[in-house]
Amino acid sequence: MIVAFSVSPSAAEEDGGVSEAVARAVKVVRESGLPNSTNAMFTNVEGESWDEVMDVVKRAVEAAGEGSSRVGLVLKADIRPGYEGQLTAKVERVEKHLSE
After folding, report:
1. How many structural domains does the chain have?
2. pTM for this predicted structure
């Protein structure tokens, strides 16, 4: 399964940004050892089970929320049992069609 998620704590930096908090969340994801990618809006993480992926998301949300009384979470999941490596494979299939 692939989960795309975005976290935003209520306690922002002076300029309104949340990059420090988001960096704490991304660090948790990267240290998990699961395949992942981060872009300007979401972090994607891929794993074999709900428990595996949601544990990482939970810990990332907790890390982002350090020092904040509230955290917003947006989450989208692609649940496709029996498929692995889809974090890159899905993009490769799209790129193939673009080059035709």
Report:
1. 1
2. 0.90
